[in-house]
């Protein structure tokens, strides 16, 4: 399944999305119903999607949500299966101000930086 197909099927918000004026939608999420931000135009921003609320950040005229799951984990019986869209809502406000773990990788002198957290569950 291509990412475009997953988006059309209605997955969750893709991670690492940045958009001017906080109007972005991504990977199948409903458009944020409401975004609240500080009067200064900087600081936390909360977007409410059909799966739950996400806390991103805003600086200058750019709003960013990082580390947001766009597919269910590919573990167990789904290890080699195509990604499945996120369909389970979450409670509370999910923090989306930092990137999630990257895929498992060997250390390499050619890699710019792969010293961050790594995990098999990396569909963010």
TrEMBL record:
InterPro entries linked to this entry: AB_hydrolase_fold, CarbesteraseB, TAT_signal, Type-B_Carboxylest/Lipase
Domain Carboxylesterase type B: 46-123
Keyword entries, A-Z: Signal
PROSITE patterns the record matches: TAT
Biological source species: Streptomyces glebosus
Chloroplast found in the keyword field: no
Keyword Membrane belongs to the record: no
Signal sequence range: 1-29
Region (Disordered): 21-44
Superkingdom in the source lineage: Bacteria
Pfam families: COesterase (PF00135)
Segments of skewed composition (Low complexity): 21-39
Record-given protein name: Carboxylesterase type B domain-containing protein
């Amino acid at each position: 399944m291509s990412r475009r197909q997953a988006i059309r099927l209605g997955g969750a918000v893709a991670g690492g999305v940045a958009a001017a004026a906080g109007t972005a939608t991504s990977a199948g999420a409903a458009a944020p119903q409401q975004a609240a931000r500080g009067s200064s135009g900087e600081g936390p921003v909360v977007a409410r999607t059909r799966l739950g609320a996400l806390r991103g950040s805003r600086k200058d005229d750019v709003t960013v949500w990082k580390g947001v799951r766009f597919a269910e984990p590919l573990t167990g019986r789904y290890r080699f299966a195509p990604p499945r869209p996120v369909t389970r809502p979450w409670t509370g406000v999910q923090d989306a101000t930092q990137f999630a773990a990257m895929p498992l990788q060997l250390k390499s002198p050619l890699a710019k930086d792969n010293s961050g957290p790594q995990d098999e569950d990396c569909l963010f």
